[in-house]
Design goal:
Blueprint lengths: L2 E10 L3 E9 L4 E7 L2 H15 L7 H11 L9 H21 L3 H4 L7 E7 L8 H13 L4 E5 L13 H5 L8 H18 L4 E5 L6 H10 L7 E3 L7 H10 L4 E3 L5 H10 L5 E2 L3 H4 L1 H13 L13 H12 L7 E3 L17 E2 L2 E3 L12 H6 L10
Helix pairs in contact: 1-3, 2-3, 5-7, 8-9, 10-12, 12-13
The structure holds magnesium ion (MG).
């Protein structure tokens, strides 16, 4: 079997959802999704098509690594190039599963678990009162989720009353004042109270804080027994992240903007975080993220992938989550987007906060192109 074409299309959703379709001379097609690569990844895939045509589509890891290493001068260790390769890699896995008539998880060593626990990302802001927080949380609980995540920092700095104040005032400010600090703690307390004892609450800080502010906040959240506190500081400085992690019993999670095993190596070797969160349809794909998860398992660090993808990328991620021992929970970021249920032929893939893996070949879902194209990303072409 030989690859005959590699084409892209893109839809709007949480971000740009870039579809990669690979066809073969055997008439078998694979479809992948990657995110956050933007128009750059589209251009890169277009450029790579010619060198992929004629290749054996089963040589997934070899195609990925050979292409990556040959493009090391063009940025083959992070960013849009890796995300482009990720979209290709996931399409190849879908294709291989279909060609062999097995789900991807069977090709990856088989399942540790039959269903994948998912947490819902939901929107609260520090200006909300208890009733408003409860309403947001209730919607998530009614949908059956047993874990959720909220942003503590968004709009946390608007202390003159402007809802968008903190970002408009000074986007480089890393040091919340006492009022702002207390406002974030209060919001977390309200969310945990609204969620009740049986639901885990994770919180995100989007790398906004300085070291001291992060330690103070993490310590003041300890009584809430959070699932985690996400990226209190930028993950680039592993020493600072490690110091925060060692300063608090609040678990620290990071990694949604790191790429490949290489991006996670030192973070894991120094145990600078308690939990890692690679974005599978962005940072290297299914093989690479299985390896990252296995590296983390050597340090007893749970694997909780970041995820903003459509059901295609989400289900592709679920195959990885099923086949590693240290999976914790997978993100779901499409709450209240109606076409989550119609953009594939799988309908609602999350029931009671869990994704059940089916036994269809490949990823196990087909993109509904009619629906996806209704949301075509501006300035893109459609599998041309
Ligand atoms: Mg985050």
């Amino acid at each position: 079997m030989k690859i005959t074409s590699v084409k892209t299309a893109a839809s709007t959703g949480h971000c740009m959802h870039l579809w990669v379709k690979i066809t073969t001379d055997a008439g078998i097609t694979g479809l992948g999704e990657c995110v956050h690569g933007g128009h750059q990844s589209i251009a890169i895939i277009k450029e790579l098509e010619e060198r992929l045509i004629g290749r054996d589509p089963f040589a997934i890891d070899a195609i990925f690594e050979e292409t990556r290493r040959s493009l090391v001068f063009e940025g083959g260790f992070a960013g849009a190039l890796i995300t482009a390769l990720t979209g290709i890699e996931i399409a190849l896995w879908d294709l291989k599963g279909k060609a062999l008539n097995v789900p991807i998880y069977e090709l990856m060593g088989g399942k540790f678990r039959d269903d994948i626990r998912v947490y819902a990302d939901c929107e609260v802001s520090p200006g909300m009162n208890m009733a408003e927080v409860q309403a947001v949380v209730d919607e998530v609980l009614e949908a059956g989720f047993t874990a959720l995540k909220v942003d503590l920092d968004i709009r946390a700095y608007g202390h003159t009353g402007s809802e968008t104040g903190w970002y408009e005032k000074d986007k480089f400010n890393m040091t919340p004042n006492k009022w702002e600090h207390d406002r974030m703690v209060t919001l977390a307390e309200m969310v945990v109270k609204a969620a009740g004892n049986d639901v885990d609450v994770a919180t995100d800080l989007h790398t906004r804080l300085d070291k001291h502010s992060a330690i103070r906040l993490a310590r003041d959240l300890e009584h809430l027994k959070l699932l985690w506190l996400e990226e209190p500081v930028p993950p680039e400085n592993i020493d600072v992240m490690a110091e925060i992690t060692r300063s608090t019993s609040t678990p620290i999670c990071a990694g949604e903007n790191l790429y490949l095993r290489h991006g996670f190596r030192k973070l894991l070797e120094t145990q600078a975080v308690d939990i890692i969160m690679p974005d599978i349809p962005k940072c290297g794909g299914l093989s690479e993220c299985r390896k990252i998860a296995e590296m983390a398992d050597l340090y007893s660090i749970p694997f909780a992938p970041h995820n903003v993808s459509s059901p295609i990328g989400t289900m592709a991620s679920a195959h990885v989550c099923a086949t590693v021992p240290n999976f914790l929970v997978l993100e779901f970021h499409w709450f209240n987007r109606d076409y989550w249920k119609t953009i594939t032929d799988g309908g609602e893939i999350i029931e009671n906060g869990r994704i059940r893996l089916n036994d269809r070949p490949g990823i196990g879902l087909e993109l509904n192109e009619d629906v996806a194209r209704q949301h075509q990303y501006p300035g893109t072409t459609w599998f041309e």
